């Protein structure tokens, strides 16, 4: 069975007493440890590590990451504004968005935020607005790596970036607006197949060679993190040495020595977060059916299992040495609100300590793409509060949401 990452029974009880259940708790110590690991990623000609803040954009988390010297990659103009609101210097922020900014483009570019175009249209729009400026672009390398279609962001089925055979058009548009392309970016997904990494690295370096002003090559993130005990995390040193060798061989052949950028999101934050909840109910569907462990949280708070059929460690906090197999499900009125399914979205059971109604439960690996990607207020459940464990002290970083606060933006016309 799974074990707790950084919480203790005492801290779990303290968290629930402080703000109730469910509640997210993040470990500053774990975040800082991951930041140090990422900053030690091997490189031949310099390294810049960016936190993909869509994984966890909470202001308190951003400030911890910034304190460790990392930069940031934003997926929308609004994530950029979030960073600026947190006091992060503009030059540490890069915007890589599927949607071209409609509201804050002038503000963020003039502040010094780096713009990374994701389509030919974006390059043209940016060039019209800021002729003569520096720019980078994201290339779709033609292949990707991920556990399924939803986690694979390269290849013909992915809309991300400019298709690798269209970079001549990139040069034409850039020349039309006197843009200087000084960085290039690619990302293959959340897999870590070494052969795919090698092929994509070599292809991205070859694309960089077409643009004489390029000094930095960004290979994205997607480093696998073991949430479950049965999984294996990417070894950053092994992957880094592998990529470093490719960069060196390329430089020996072409004379081009490129600085490396990487953009981990999940790796930095996944196992720094835990979701504390409790058992609301237990039911069954007879001898030939299942026993359902119903929690007081669900897809409104943690959506990954419903969206990706992702597995998260589930630990029942009691002293029971007896175990039982349950289908663990959430509190939303949705048949898809289930925490224990396989890759084909078929119900599976999870062996945990035999539970009773009211037992506290910890869902681990909840620091990335959980609070940030939740279906906030679905079924009108309040947004889940969040705490930061900082030097042994639980600090509120997002207070519980009241019904009044939930309804405040809504207007009944007269």
Proportion of beta-strand residues: 15-25%
Low-pLDDT windows of residues: 144-154
DSSP, total strands: 18
Please tell me the total number of domains.
2
Inertia-based shape: globular
| Terminus-to-terminus distance | 57 Å
Largest sheet: 9 strands, mixed
Q: Give the helix/strand class.
A: alpha/beta
CATH architecture of the largest domain: Alpha-Beta Barrel
CATH class of the largest domain: Alpha Beta
Count of DSSP H/I helices: 12
CATH fold-level label of the largest domain: TIM Barrel
* Name given to the CATH homologous superfamily of the largest domain: Alanine racemase
| H/E topology pattern | HEHEHEHEHEHEEHEHEHEHEEHEEEEEEH
- The overall pLDDT average reads 93
* Helical residues, percent: 25-40%
If you compute it from the alpha carbons, what radius of gyration comes out, rounded to the nearest whole angstrom? 23 Å
Description:
This protein is an alpha/beta fold and 414 residues long. It has 2 domains: 27-269, Alanine racemase (TIM Barrel), CATH 3.20.20; 270-397, Beta Barrel (Lyase, Ornithine Decarboxylase, Chain A, domain 1). It has helices at residues 9-19, 28-39, 59-67, 77-85, 105-111, 120-129, 167-176, 194-208, 236-254, 266-269, 304-308, 403-407; strands at residues 23-27, 47-52, 71-74, 93-95, 114-117, 134-140, 162-163, 180-185, 216-218, 259-262, 273-284, 291-295, 314-317, 323-329, 350-353, 360-363, 386-390, 393-398. Strands 1, 11, 12, 13, 14, 15, 16, 17 and 18 form a 9-stranded mixed beta sheet that branches. Strands 2-3-4-5-6-8-9-10 form an 8-stranded parallel β-barrel, surrounded by 4 helices. Helix 6 packs parallel to helix 7 and helix 8 (194-208) runs parallel beside helix 9 (236-254). The radius of gyration is 23 Å and the shape is globular.
């Amino acid at each position: 069975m799974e074990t707790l990452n950084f919480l203790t029974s005492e801290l779990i009880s303290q968290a629930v007493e402080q703000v109730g259940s469910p509640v997210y708790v993040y470990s500053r110590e774990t975040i800082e440890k991951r930041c140090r690991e990422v900053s030690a990623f091997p490189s031949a000609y310099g390294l810049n590590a960016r936190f993909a803040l869509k994984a966890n954009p909470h202001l308190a988390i951003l400030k911890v990451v910034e304190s460790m010297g990392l930069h940031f990659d934003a997926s929308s103009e609004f994530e950029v504004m979030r960073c600026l609101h947190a006091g992060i210097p503009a030059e540490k922020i890069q915007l890589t968005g599927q949607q071209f900014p409609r509201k804050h483009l002038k503000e963020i570019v003039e502040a010094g935020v780096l713009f990374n175009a994701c389509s030919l249209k974006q390059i043209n729009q940016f060039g019209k607005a800021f002729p003569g400026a520096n720019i980078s672009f994201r290339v779709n390398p033609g292949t990707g790596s991920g556990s399924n279609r939803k986690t694979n962001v390269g290849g013909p089925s992915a809309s991300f970036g400019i298709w690798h055979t269209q970079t001549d058009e990139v040069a034409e548009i850039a020349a039309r607006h006197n843009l200087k392309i000084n960085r290039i970016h690619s990302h293959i997904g959340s897999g870590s197949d070494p052969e795919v990494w090698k092929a994509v690295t070599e292809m991205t370096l070859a694309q960089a060679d077409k643009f004489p002003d390029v000094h930095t090559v960004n290979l994205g993130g997607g480093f696998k993190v073991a949430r479950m005990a049965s999984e294996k995390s990417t070894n950053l040193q092994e992957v880094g040495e592998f990529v470093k060798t490719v960069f060196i061989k390329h430089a020996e052949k072409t004379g081009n020595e490129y600085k490396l950028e990487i953009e981990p999101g999940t790796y930095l934050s996944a196992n720094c977060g835990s979701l504390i909840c409790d058992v609301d109910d237990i039911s069954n569907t007879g001898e030939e059916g299942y026993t359902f462990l119903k929690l007081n949280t669900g897809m409104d708070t943690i959506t990954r299992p419903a969206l990706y059929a992702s597995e998260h460690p589930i630990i029942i906090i009691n002293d029971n040495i007896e175990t039982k197999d349950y289908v663990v499900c959430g509190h939303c009125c949705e048949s898809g609100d289930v925490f224990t399914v396989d890759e084909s979205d078929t119900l599976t059971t999870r062996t945990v300590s035999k539970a009773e109604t009211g037992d506290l439960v910890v869902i681990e690996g909840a620091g990335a793409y959980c609070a940030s990607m939740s279906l906030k207020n679905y079924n009108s459940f309040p947004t889940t509060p969040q705490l930061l464990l900082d030097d042994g002290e639980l600090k509120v970083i997002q207070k519980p949401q009241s019904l009044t606060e939930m309804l405040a933006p809504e207007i009944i016309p007269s």
